[in-house]
Amino acid sequence: MKNIQKNLKVEKLEKEKRNLLKNIEPFLNNTIRGTFQIWYQVCARKSCKCHQSKKYQHGPYLRISYFKGGRTHHIYIPSEKEKIAERCCKNYQKVWSGIEKISQINIKLLKIKNGKRK
Ligand SMILES: [Zn+2]
């Protein structure tokens, strides 16, 4: 690839990266790495009717589950915080997806700078 073409390509990729960064930046402040779940529970009392049928299970409970330190953690979410909790988990997906795209661009940039890309 000629130098001018190479520079244009690099410029285009750098611009893409700046846009991706701009797009994920608003979500960074409210992000939680976890899965938002609506959860029903069977209790420990064997005589409770929650053991008979799904429709008697306790809940719904709202929770976020996440994996850390080799195990899964759950945090229970009060119903008034359902929307923010759900949004934080979705934000993480947006941030992560942006990081993936930036990573792919950085790989392309390395290839260009190494002269391995046509
Ligand atoms: Zn029960």
Give the DSSP E fraction (strand runs of 2 or more residues). Answer: 15-25%
Q: Enumerate the spans where pLDDT stays under 50 for 5 or more consecutive residues.
A: none
What strand line-up does the widest sheet have? 1-2-3
* Helix content estimate: 40-55%
Number of helices: 2
Bound molecules: zinc ion
General shape: elongated
Radius of gyration: 23 Å
Structural class: alpha+beta
For the secondary structure, the number of strands is 3
Mean pLDDT: 93
When the domains are counted, the total is: 1
Largest sheet: 3 strands, antiparallel
Ends distance = 5 Å
Reading the helices and strands in chain order gives: HEEEH
Task: Give an overview in words.
- There is one protein chain.
- The chain has 118 residues and is an alpha+beta fold.
- Helix content is 50%, strand content 21%.
- The protein is built from two helices and three strands; from the N terminus they run αβββα.
- A hairpin with a 2-residue loop joins strand 2 (58-68) and strand 3 (71-77).
- Helix 1 runs antiparallel to helix 2.
- It is elongated and about 80 Å long.
- The model has no long low-confidence stretch (mean pLDDT 93).
- Bound molecules: zinc ion.
- Zinc ion binds at residues 43, 45, 48, 50, 58.
